[in-house]
Protein backbone atom coordinates (compact mmCIF):
# COMPACT_ATOMS: atom_id res chain seq x y z
CA UNK A 1 0.00 0.00 0.00
CA UNK A 2 1.31 3.43 -0.89
CA UNK A 3 0.88 5.64 2.16
CA UNK A 4 0.87 8.98 0.31
CA UNK A 5 -1.70 7.98 -2.30
CA UNK A 6 -3.89 6.50 0.42
CA UNK A 7 -3.76 9.75 2.41
CA UNK A 8 -4.81 11.76 -0.65
CA UNK A 9 -7.65 9.36 -1.44
CA UNK A 10 -8.94 9.44 2.13
CA UNK A 11 -8.78 13.21 2.46
CA UNK A 12 -10.57 13.84 -0.83
CA UNK A 13 -13.47 11.73 0.41
CA UNK A 14 -14.14 13.99 3.41
CA UNK A 15 -16.25 17.15 3.24
CA UNK A 16 -13.91 20.06 2.64
CA UNK A 17 -11.01 17.62 2.30
CA UNK A 18 -10.27 17.73 6.04
CA UNK A 19 -10.02 14.69 8.32
CA UNK A 20 -9.09 14.64 12.00
CA UNK A 21 -6.08 12.43 12.74
CA UNK A 22 -8.19 9.81 14.55
CA UNK A 23 -10.44 9.39 11.49
CA UNK A 24 -7.47 9.36 9.14
CA UNK A 25 -5.73 6.64 11.17
CA UNK A 26 -8.91 4.56 11.34
CA UNK A 27 -9.48 4.81 7.57
CA UNK A 28 -5.82 3.96 6.89
CA UNK A 29 -6.12 0.85 9.06
CA UNK A 30 -9.26 -0.25 7.22
CA UNK A 31 -7.62 0.16 3.82
CA UNK A 32 -4.34 -1.43 4.92
CA UNK A 33 -6.21 -4.60 5.85
CA UNK A 34 -8.58 -4.60 2.88
CA UNK A 35 -6.49 -6.86 0.68
CA UNK A 36 -4.32 -6.83 -2.42
CA UNK A 37 -6.73 -4.82 -4.57
CA UNK A 38 -6.16 -1.61 -2.64
CA UNK A 39 -2.39 -2.15 -2.42
CA UNK A 40 -2.16 -2.82 -6.16
CA UNK A 41 -4.33 0.19 -6.97
CA UNK A 42 -2.26 2.61 -4.86
CA UNK A 43 0.98 1.29 -6.35
CA UNK A 44 -0.42 1.77 -9.86
CA UNK A 45 -1.56 5.32 -9.06
CA UNK A 46 1.77 6.18 -7.42
CA UNK A 47 3.68 4.97 -10.48
CA UNK A 48 2.08 7.79 -12.50
CA UNK A 49 3.72 10.40 -10.25
CA UNK A 50 7.03 8.80 -9.22
CA UNK A 51 8.39 11.83 -7.30
CA UNK A 52 5.27 12.21 -5.15
CA UNK A 53 5.87 13.79 -1.74
CA UNK A 54 2.64 15.04 -0.20
CA UNK A 55 4.46 16.99 2.51
CA UNK A 56 7.23 18.85 0.64
CA UNK A 57 4.99 19.49 -2.38
CA UNK A 58 2.30 21.00 -0.12
CA UNK A 59 -0.37 18.59 -1.36
CA UNK A 60 -1.76 18.41 2.16
CA UNK A 61 -1.64 20.79 5.07
CA UNK A 62 -1.67 20.05 8.76
CA UNK A 63 -4.12 22.03 10.83
CA UNK A 64 -6.41 21.77 13.86
CA UNK A 65 -5.43 18.23 14.80
CA UNK A 66 -5.89 16.83 11.30
CA UNK A 67 -4.86 17.04 7.67
CA UNK A 68 -6.53 18.76 4.72
CA UNK A 69 -5.92 18.15 1.02
CA UNK A 70 -4.98 21.29 -0.91
CA UNK A 71 -6.07 22.28 -4.40
CA UNK A 72 -2.66 21.12 -5.64
CA UNK A 73 -3.26 17.79 -3.93
CA UNK A 74 -6.59 17.42 -5.71
CA UNK A 75 -4.92 18.26 -9.04
CA UNK A 76 -2.18 15.66 -8.53
CA UNK A 77 -4.77 13.05 -7.57
CA UNK A 78 -6.72 13.87 -10.75
CA UNK A 79 -3.53 13.36 -12.78
CA UNK A 80 -2.89 10.01 -11.11
CA UNK A 81 -6.46 8.86 -11.75
CA UNK A 82 -6.58 10.06 -15.36
CA UNK A 83 -6.90 7.18 -17.76
CA UNK A 84 -3.73 6.48 -19.71
CA UNK A 85 -3.93 6.81 -23.49
CA UNK A 86 -5.10 3.65 -25.22
CA UNK A 87 -2.30 1.81 -27.02
CA UNK A 88 -2.38 1.44 -30.79
CA UNK A 89 -4.39 -1.56 -31.97
CA UNK A 90 -2.42 -4.61 -33.11
CA UNK A 91 -4.30 -4.56 -36.44
CA UNK A 92 -4.24 -0.97 -37.74
CA UNK A 93 -7.30 -1.62 -39.93
CA UNK A 94 -9.44 -2.20 -36.85
CA UNK A 95 -10.23 0.71 -34.57
CA UNK A 96 -9.15 0.42 -30.97
CA UNK A 97 -11.95 -0.28 -28.56
CA UNK A 98 -11.83 2.08 -25.63
CA UNK A 99 -11.13 0.30 -22.40
CA UNK A 100 -13.49 1.14 -19.59
CA UNK A 101 -12.12 3.50 -16.96
CA UNK A 102 -11.46 1.86 -13.62
CA UNK A 103 -14.10 2.80 -11.10
CA UNK A 104 -13.04 5.60 -8.82
CA UNK A 105 -12.70 4.40 -5.27
CA UNK A 106 -14.09 6.88 -2.83
CA UNK A 107 -14.13 6.09 0.80
CA UNK A 108 -17.42 7.27 2.19
CA UNK A 109 -17.97 7.12 5.89
CA UNK A 110 -21.55 7.79 6.88
CA UNK A 111 -21.85 9.51 10.18
CA UNK A 112 -25.20 9.50 11.99
CA UNK A 113 -27.04 12.77 11.69
CA UNK A 114 -30.09 14.32 13.28
CA UNK A 115 -32.42 12.37 10.98
CA UNK A 116 -31.03 9.11 12.38
CA UNK A 117 -32.21 9.90 15.89
CA UNK A 118 -35.66 8.58 16.56
CA UNK A 119 -38.08 11.12 17.83
CA UNK A 120 -40.36 9.50 20.36
CA UNK A 121 -43.62 11.25 21.04
CA UNK A 122 -45.43 11.13 24.29
CA UNK A 123 -48.60 9.01 24.11
CA UNK A 124 -50.98 12.01 23.98
CA UNK A 125 -48.79 14.11 21.69
CA UNK A 126 -49.77 12.28 18.49
CA UNK A 127 -53.46 12.71 19.24
CA UNK A 128 -53.06 16.42 19.85
CA UNK A 129 -51.08 16.82 16.63
CA UNK A 130 -53.75 14.98 14.62
CA UNK A 131 -56.65 16.80 16.28
CA UNK A 132 -55.45 20.27 15.33
UniProtKB/TrEMBL annotation:
Top-level taxon: Bacteria
Biased composition (Basic and acidic residues): 113-132
Name of the featured protein: Uncharacterized protein
Region: Disordered, residue numbers: 86-132
Amino acid sequence: MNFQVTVLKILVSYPGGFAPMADLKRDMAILATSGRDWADRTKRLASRVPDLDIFSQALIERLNGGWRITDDGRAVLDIMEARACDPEPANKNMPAEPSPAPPALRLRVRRPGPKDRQHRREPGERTRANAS
